Amino acid sequence: MVTMDMERHDFQLDDLVERIKDNDHRLVALQVPEGLKMQALEMMDSIEEDSEAKVVLAADPCYGACDLVHDKMRMMGVELVAHMGHSAMNIDSGMPTHFIPVTYEGDPEIDPVIPILVRHKEIAETRLAESITPFDLSEDEAKDRFLDAVGRVAPLSGTKLGLVGSIQHLHLLPEYKERFENAGFEVEIPTGGARLTFPGQVLGCNYSGDDPSIGHYIFLGSGDFHPIGLVMHTGKPLALLDPYTGEASELSFERIERILRQRMGLIFSVDEAKSFGILIGEKPGQMRRNLAIRMKRLLEKHGRKGYLLALDHVGPDLIDFYPVDAFVNTACPRIAIDDAVKYAKPLITPFELEVALGEKQWENGYQFDEIP
Ligand code: SF4
Q1: pTM score of the predicted model
Q2: What SS3 class is residue 286?
Q3: How far apart are CA 110 and CA 108, in angstroms?
Q4: From the CA of 346, how far away is ligand 1's center (Å)?
Q5: Distance from the CA of 370 to the center of ligand 1, in angstroms?
């Protein structure tokens, strides 16, 4: 287990306190990510000492800005939501929300990661040299392509190093761009779509900054949640540099191929399924009602039945008992990918359902379920 050095985390509460005072707010909800909940009471003390407001902790699990406290807290009289550790998304929660940045002052050496990056650049160069035409493939070759962890998405136009990170380390990226450039790499800090706020930012459900000129990646952060999604989405080699420990590593292709093999197995397993529960996430940034309804229509077109099930949290205890053969998940995309084994029945993504029904082809490679 990684022990985080909490002393080097900077919680920027001053702007929040100013906003509370300026608006004379009396009741504020504080929402913090799971990893920082231990510090929540200290933060509540600090806000209450510096302002006239009372603070109520929104203590339900929170894994992203997709999960903002919404209207129900208004009934409690909450006037402002203070959300920590994530950045604003292209969603409206119905509540005034103040985002509190958290930064971490890590300064890991780049030397240990250089040999990995050199190897990954060579992979990118080989890919760039090979032009793959997906539609010339046989059925077996197409399925191999589906399972291939690299080289299975769009052809490359370059071999640049994409520099990305998790939110508390993004302020380090310009400095690290320079360091990697000095080490001989052409570096891009990719800018993504409306769901992302900052250059180089990635979410577990959005890697929209990717472009064909990027041949491989380095991720500044810890854990494998964002890295797994990045490689599933882009099919590109990924090195990891952890600002908490200074450790350099890479996300192995075998790991991604194992996940893709599991996804393929799940697609096969719903072949005969007649009825599906279609999960709709109630969290403001996970709600994909139109996609869910499209899946219901698609199932009807293929003579199957789909039931729309709306949930705030998704978990095995909450859905396994329904008398359906399988589930399609339109809430957080990572529920199907990361938690599949916890469910008694197949839990698949909308893309996987489309493949199972023959609406999408294997040869285009695995398509990650991105929320734009
Ligand atoms: S990966 Fe899931 S929890 Fe994280 S921001 Fe996306 S929808 Fe929310």
Answers
A1: 0.90
A2: coil
A3: 6
A4: 21
A5: 10
